[in-house]
Design brief:
The chain is mainly beta and 266 residues long. A hairpin with a 2-residue loop joins strand 3 and strand 4. The longest helix is centred in the C-terminal third of the chain and has 7 residues.
Amino acid sequence: MNRLLFLIGGLVITGRVLANFEGSDDFNHNFRNSSLWGTEAYLQGRFIERNDRLEYSASSWPSESFLPWVGSTGDFTRAWAVQIDYFNAVPISTGGSAGVSFQIANSANRGSALSFGAYRDATGMHFSGRLSFGAQYSPVQNLAVAGGGSGTIRIEFDPVTKVLSTLYAINTSVSPEFVLVGSYGVAGGGGSVGNFDWGMAGGGDFELTLIASSNFASVPEGLLNADNFVAVPEASTTAFVLGGVAVLATFRRRTFWPVPHSKERH
């Protein structure tokens, strides 16, 4: 089943202030920070910031919501990485699915995009990604994982190879590590799953959108959530642990779910 949803082409994203992905949000305000997130486009379901997290719920299906990050954009010539924690306990029957995903798109051509997320269907949790270029699509990379109801999804960009990499970490009793799912070249090559030339060699930047969706499944309140969004202008795990400390110094540790090892701060 194709679990990926792509950004509505006409969605307008404004208000960027930084030249490379940088910033964070732990969703502890119980209201949307308009300096970080733009106008939500939605069908049936909605994101609501409450209970110190970003909750998604939908009383009917199909449902989807697109929430653009406007605090910064990703540079085509510099390294960056973005990640967010998720929690997914949505009850799913055969044929249904629900999940949270990232979409990275070429700001000059939103038909060029990478979608990657964590989805639950009747068989369990999956991490799924696909690259697009207009009407062309890479194969869907779909990795089934035992457990995985809470964890982290992440996308990294290598400015030398021009490759986007998708990774996940799941929360267990042992501190989890990030696992590579697949890689995608945006300058014509280098990816393990798919490659397209997005035409960004002359300059350009990447946009980020947070997406939640469900198909053949309603989403009760509190069962599909996101938290602890982080964007750093350096793709290494070390940058999240060290370079992100100043950005995240005011974050409160929560008991919502365990924090992956790569994000723990003491």
